[in-house]
Amino acid sequence: MSLSSSSCWLFFLIIIFHLVSTSANNGCYTSIISFGDSLADTGNLKQLASIYHRSFPYFRPPYGETFFGRPTGRCSNGRLIIDFLAESLGLPLVPPYVGGDTRRMDDGVNYAVAGATALGSRFTFASAETSCKDFIGRSLILVGEIGGNDYNHPLILGKSIEEVESYVPFVVSTIVLAINDLINLGAKTLVIPGNLPIGCSAAYLTIYYGSDIKEYDNTTGCLIRLNKFAEYHNELLQRELNRIQDINPNVHIIYADYYNAAMQFYVSPSKYGFKNGVLKACCGGEGPFNCNPSVACANPSYMVCAQPDTYANWDGMHLTEAAYKLIYKSVFEGSCSIPRFNSLCPSLTLHKRDYGAF
């Protein structure tokens, strides 16, 4: 029996509405608002550098080559955790705020800037008007990773781990201030990542090369004291997040455990496809970890590995797209978040979209 033309048209509209609503946000969040540093920057530093006529190595090949085919301002060979998150929610990749079209903020906005620190900055976003509060309330707020550069800069300059450890309470307090500001502006779901296991970074393994054998973890080859430092930051951060959650029972505060999500592949590289290892940089040129922290990956003298997806480390300090994808899956689809993110948004599905614009 054939359907009437009006019934066919109604059926068509229902199907289209279902497809549009599903691909738009998967029923969870209408957009992503992001803050942070190079782990989440999708082009802000690149835009700022252009305005002020400056250049950084991250804006030159081979950055961006794996997925985008060109540098986008991301400090990797391809996508970042925030990109995989946007894909999974059926949202556009989150555009950088600097140089962006403010009329398209409904698609989300990214304020993360490579090199940014927590200390010495004050969080600002928008007014508390009803329309703004509604927009923020419908959005997934990604607060970080923040604080890593507050530690990286002094450690690379030679300050002792003990001295830099004294910064941690101040860094965490600044993160807490930002979270409280966002809640006051209407945020309902916030994801706050902890620090990565920096003792497994090729840059730090190079800086501290030649340390006593007792300084290294027998299982991973990572630097024990630096990883304990990251764990200390994460413990203080989680303690404060629990306190904020108790005060704000109607807000979802999610701790993203980047540390243990990454530690999985540092413990078992081959299990996760890193046949060329997890401690040596893909883009580099010298030393046991293929890394010289004072020379950038885009330096013409540097060699780029043929298969970046078989490496976890990209340029010494940052990870490859393959590593970021595994961290994304462990945090947002797996068990490396408290509470589990997929208990709040259980229908994550990876969508394929055209990302040529970013």
From TrEMBL:
It comes from Cynara cardunculus var. scolymus (Globe artichoke). It holds the Pfam family Lipase_GDSL. Belongs to the 'GDSL' lipolytic enzyme family. It comes from the Eukaryota. Transmembrane segments: none annotated. This is Lipase, GDSL. Gene3D superfamilies: SGNH hydrolase. GO terms for molecular function: hydrolase activity, acting on ester bonds. The keyword Chloroplast does not apply. Keywords: Glycoprotein, Hydrolase, Signal. Residues 1-24 form the signal peptide. InterPro entries: GDSL, SGNH_hydro_sf, SGNH_plant_lipase-like.
